[in-house]
Amino acid sequence: MIVWLNGTHGVGKTTTSALVRELIPGSRVLDAEKVGETLMDIAPSLPWTGNFQDWPPWRPLVVETARHVLDYTCGTLVMPMTVLVEPYWREISAGLAHHGIPVRHFVLHADQDTLRGRIDGDLVMGPSDFRLRYLEPYAEAARTWLHAAAEVVDTTRLTPAEAARRIAESVAVTP
After folding, report:
1. How far is CA 91 from CA 37, 68, 86, 96, 130, in A?
2. Smallest Cα–Cα separation from 138: which of 110, 118, 114, 158?
3. pLDDT in tens for each of the 175 residues of the chain?
4. What is the DSSP string of 4-24?
């Protein structure tokens, strides 16, 4: 199974995914961003589109990487990755379904003021214009398709540990 943690940059996906992994026996974290980083390391570089998710190889490589890791290890993959483009999410989820891999899709959500505060106050990464640029695209995706396509965990007033516990408990009680 895959537990996919979606949501905008700065909402806490990476932190929460590590905590979910601790709560789900036999689980591992696979950050699909690493697939994008691999593509970014190709020399000479692929034509830049502004986001590695726009490169056609990224989405099927995410599916194939997850499939092969699950075939090798079994268990559960916790995958923290922002996907705000609906056709990209459909392509990834259809690819995983084609291989019979069940996906629990969660969106970590927080209101815009909370997100701005978390991004501006991040002591590890520091303030990030990159993360701030995704607040409006996230809000648009949330309004138009994303929240309907996932289980929303509102983290506005939750710690990452509380969010992780809710996700792990939800996964544990659902076949």
Report:
1. 20, 17, 9, 9, 25
2. 110
3. 999 999 999 899 999 999 999 999 999 999 999 999 999 999 999 999 989 999 999 999 999 999 999 999 999 999 999 999 999 999 999 999 999 999 999 999 999 999 999 998 887 877 788 899 999 999 999 999 999 999 999 999 999 999 999 999 999 865 4
4. EEE--TTSSHHHHHHHHHHHS
CA distances from 159 to 105, 127, 128, 129 (A): 20, 20, 21, 24
Q: What CA dihedral angle connects 76, 80, 86 and 91, to 10 degrees?
A: -40
Asked if 75 and 21 touch (Cβ cutoff 8 Å), the reply is no
The structure tokens listed for 60 are 């099927």
Q: Which run of H or of E encompasses 175? A: none
Helices (H), 24-100: 33-40, 58-73, 86-98
Alpha-carbon span 110 to 115, nearest angstrom: 6
